[in-house]
Design goal:
By secondary structure, the protein is α+β, with helices and mostly antiparallel strands. The chain contains 8 helices and 8 strands. The strands form 4 sheets. The chain has a two-stranded antiparallel ribbon with strand order 1-2. It has a two-stranded parallel sheet with strand order 3-6. A two-stranded antiparallel ribbon has the order 4-5. α6 runs antiparallel to α8. The longest helix is centred in the N-terminal third of the chain and has 23 residues, at 28-50. It is globular and about 55 Å long. The termini are far apart. Residues 33-133 form the SET domain. It comes from Geosmithia morbida. It holds the Pfam family SET.
Length: 231
């Protein structure tokens, strides 16, 4: 517990704990991420209360952030049947590794556990880093409470502002902020999606044959917008 951030440090670092006037100054994509965090955390707090546990929401939110920012993906044969959000695990000591895009360690996992391996020589006392993923600073700030110096987020173009209205017009189920689940961004250098666009679609749409036409129309719209921006 002694190595965990203090209450004051959490409030200074994580936008989810910031006052609303300060959150309004965040870039649109970061605000979207924080808004969704707020809804997800509140829903989970309500389920916790329903189980008979009495816990102040602010106290729960701080604990939620500590866990959310320290979990590791555990995709093994033991968890492959679980939903994605249930394949996350806390690993003692591993959460002490900080993030760097030029990580000096590789991370691998299997049914037996996690293995962190140095990929180069290190001097005594030198800090060793792992990579949390190739994320934008918007995502890193919302999820981990910091930003990477020198990160060029202009490499990513967010399409949420054009995708969400189209999704609503098609009658697709909306999240609390009026858009489908997920983030829609492209690489500004080559116009290619930064992620699998279909993964960001609500699960019931991906699995419901009756929604296939709507899904394909939205995906075609996204691809057309990508081509427009890349040309």
């Amino acid at each position: 517990m002694a190595v965990l951030p203090t209450q004051q440090e959490l409030h200074a670092s994580f936008p989810l704990l910031w006052p609303s006037w300060l959150c309004e100054m965040l870039p649109a994509r970061a605000r979207c991420l924080v808004d969704r965090q707020e809804v997800r955390c509140h829903e989970q707090w309500e389920r916790t209360l329903a189980s008979g546990v009495s816990l102040d929401e602010e106290e729960y939110t701080r604990a939620w952030l500590l866990v959310n920012s320290r979990t590791f993906y555990n995709g093994s044969s033991l968890t492959e049947g679980y939903p994605w959000e249930e394949r996350l695990a806390l690993i003692p000591l591993a959460d002490l590794f900080n993030h760097s895009r030029e990580a000096g360690c590789s991370v691998n996992f299997s049914d037996e556990g996690y293995v962190v391996t140095a990929v180069r020589g290190n001097d005594p006392g030198e800090e060793m880093y792992i990579s949390y993923g190739d994320y934008s600073n918007d995502y890193i700030l919302a999820e981990y409470g910091f930003a990477v110096e020198g990160r060029d987020d202009e490499e990513m173009i967010c399409l949420n502002d054009v995708v969400f209205p189209k999704a609503r017009a098609l009658g697709l189920p909306s999240s609390h902020d009026g858009g489908p689940v997920g983030e829609y961004a492209i690489d500004a250098n080559n116009g290619q999606p930064c992620d699998d666009l279909t993964r960001n679609m609500p699960r019931d749409l991906r699995e419901d044959g009756g929604a296939k036409d709507l899904l394909e129309e939205l995906l075609q719209f996204v691809k057309d917008r990508i081509n427009d921006l890349a040309s």
